[in-house]
Amino acid sequence: MAITGDQSFLKHINRMALIRLIRGRPGWSRADLAECTGLTKSTVSQLVQELIDEGWLAEDDALVTGSIGRRPTPLRLDDKRLAMIGVDLTLGSVQVVATALTGEVVASSEQKLASSAVADVIGAVAQRAAEVIAEVSRVQGRRVLGLGIGVPGPVHEGSGVLHHAANLDWHNVPVRSLLQQALGELGWPQLPVFLQRRAASAALGEVEFATTTVEEPLLFIHLGKTIGAGVFVGGRLLSGHGGFAGDVGHLQLVPDGPQCICGRRGCADTLTSLAAMSARLGVSDEEFVARVQAGDEAACAAAREGGAYLASLIHQLWLTFDPAQIVLGGIASRLGRDYVGLALQVLQERTANSRLQPPPVSVARFGTRAVAIGATALVFNQLVRPV
Ligand SMILES: [Zn+2]
Predict the structure, then answer these.
(1) 135 Cα to the center of ligand 1, angstroms
(2) How much distance in Å is there from the Cα of 229 to the middle of ligand 1?
(3) Is it the case that residue 217 has pLDDT exceeding 90?
(4) What are the phi and psi torsion angles at 356 (to 5°)?
């Protein structure tokens, strides 16, 4: 029995390796895979055939090489037959997307949430997710691999419990089991559900769906209504002992600053988050963004004030994690010159005299969908673990 177990584990590892290799090197043939992995050609052929049958891989037309004999058949991830569901859950809204293995969005749904009661929110998430699952499975004919959900607080990945979410006023909520039960009642039982902090999910989206080489450590800073970060290093997310590594919205930037929802004062969330900047003007987040983009002087001044604090936050995170690249995402990352632009300028000025230069900073590929698409990357990451 032990031998069977080992063999099945080894086979699983080999399958994952082949999927990841083809994802990184589309166009490789079975022979390329055998050479790179050291597996025999017959083992590779058998595994590749299984992966093609199950919808993971697809074959392109054989290349014309001019040589005699069988031509190598290029392989790639199949973007037509499988789907992964991703959910972005935050105060007041739920966003659901389905992506192909390549990260391309193939269906979506969203809803504003008036209530933050656990039963109401889980019910709404399940409803929207069921709608998207039905679309991709019944209309598009895809098999759904699982659902990932980015939540606004630290999680315990193993048990699927959200420890706490201050803005929702949730404590020790078993999100995975509640969601699986609700999806079961809607006709989608036993769907694998994976849970992660919102910013950590978004970081995974940058990594798993990258089109170029990812430099590690990668630091993702999510600039939304609140602020969070995700760190990808050594081939995996840095979760920390208690699941809250990267909960940087509560780093204290000003000791006697504004009161924060966490009970302390002067946290980054109270100074440089979108919620803090729009509250300074007494307008909604959406209106604040619109006013900054329209060049409204008061809004731009508030954005610049927030941008100066953002520079402090990025500086501290840079020194803490020494990332090779920083990615900024979330709706506030679109505020441009007066916020992100100013923050980067201040950062450059502060570090001009030091020998260390900040790493390159870029804007997230998936914009306001970074968390939801990242949550689908969480499904890929968990099912096809790095090897
Ligand atoms: Zn705080």
Answers:
(1) 40
(2) 14
(3) yes
(4) -90, 130
pLDDT in tens, 100-140: 999 999 999 999 999 999 999 999 999 999 999 999 999 99
Q: What is the pLDDT of residue 5?
A: 62
Note whether 234 and 256 are within 8 A (CB).
Answer: no
String of DSSP letters for 98-132: EE-TTS-EEEEEEEE-S---HHHHHHHHHHHHHHH
User: How close is the Cα of 102 to the center of ligand 1, in Å?
Assistant: 36
Å from CA of 164 to ligand 1 middle: 13
What is the model's pLDDT at position 386?
60
The rounded Å distance from CA 248 to ligand 1 centre is 9
Q: Which residues contact 387 (CB under 8 A, 6 or more apart)?
A: 13, 16, 17, 20
Distance CA 81, CA 200 (A): 27
100 and 136 Cβ atoms separated by less than 8 Å: no
How far is the centre of ligand 1, averaged over its atoms, from the C-alpha of 261 (Å)? 6
Compute the distance from residue 37 Cα to the ligand 1 centre, in Å.
48
